[in-house]
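Bench notes, bay 3.
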Amino acid sequence: MHAQPYTCSITVPVPITEAFAAIGHVADWWAKVFEGRAEALDDVFTVRFGETFVTFRITEIIPDQKAVWHVTDCFLPWLKDKTEWTGTEAIWKLAASPGGTRIDFTHAGLVPQVECYGVCVKGWDQHIKDSLYKLLTTGKGSPT
């Protein structure tokens, strides 16, 4: 039996096009220190939090439906394996729902057996369920 990766979902009262675009505006909801672009196939971007960084390449994109961000490099200094996220994928799937858009997020590779799991689940929950949700419902996220 394979371990289940981290997943979460939010439903927001905005059109799917607006929700999809907001996910690509990473500096508005996740990381204030953002380099690159996160909107089109093969875009490369890096988020930084002090000495911590994660670099992604968008490997799949279906406008208003799905985006896959592949981690190409990272440095997570608090972990024994400081590159634990390298090779993992952040997968976004969007669908119209009554009154708005449902956003389903999976971090493939972030499973309970990895060292980062507990801390990273808390981080994703804050960034997606709180900050991205606020960005889409109030116009202002709370990136760190």
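Next record in the batch:
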Amino acid sequence: MRSVITGTGIGVPPHVITNEALSRLMDTSDEWIRVRSGIQERRYAELGQGSTDLGVIASRNAIADAGLAPGDMDAVIFATMTPDHVLPGNGPLLQTALGLGDIPTFDIRQQCSGFLYGLELADLFIQSGRYRRVLLVGAEVHTAFMPWHLGWDTLIGQSTREITEAERAENTLSRDRTVLFGDGAGAVVIEAREGEAGLGTIRLHTDGAGAGVLTMTGASFKRRPFVTVEQIQAGETVPVMSGKEVFKSAVTLMPQSVREVCAASGLAVEDLDLVLVHQANLRIIEGVQKALGLPPEKVPHNIERYGNTTAATLPILFHECRQQGLVRPGMNLVFTALGSGLHWGAALYRT
């Protein structure tokens, strides 16, 4: 019995935000952003639109793509670092919105590696015989991290006021992070099937010693109260990242994981037809590609159009590769990601 992806879908919000648009709010430019990240544009959610809402859109599309109805699902795994609420998780909200019945839902938080960890859980559920159909969702609305009181609402047409010089200067303080993120969702239906196709070797790792290289210090339950106006004003609710450390870890650990699953599966890296890398930064994607010695066409990317959508990058990329005819029967494909935690790994998939 194999765990086979039988349906994919995405949910992306309507507002396309270009680099030039961001330059109206902070000291940046299209060239500055492209050189450092490869990103040209990203999507921003509507005010009041959460990661559950985008996940619902992606899930409906994935379930329909699989030729199934919502009631056919046996369990839900929802990966996100930007839930609608501290509690409850997104799983129950999505369950109700889709009319799934009282099936179990699992909310996981491995950030950029969330979808990868979700694949492992879904495979374990299916291999154990516990569930036959699992809906796996990765969805994020990162715009909640942005200092909307400093003019971000103008980007989605909610305001026409001019940004003050003081606001522009404050926005610039977090430009190294805020220009990277976008909103979006991807979902897959995973079913138990006989045959050669399906998930193969999966290797996951965590090293908490690296947790500080990508974290958020504000909105912490170690504080009393857990969030304050002062924290927000100090930018403590915007993620903090050590860019050099993240880059070094990503271009080292993701290729290691790909080699690990290949070795465990009796494959050489050159036997892989596609490697789908978490879409955090085009320079990282290119670094992984070069470290593996693969041609660019085997390591596709769409970060130019979406930015980093964290847990959603891999399912969105996989869906688009299917739509573009890049995924064909009999291929060896690997998903790989690294994110805050540090969590990283890779999963082999036979199409």
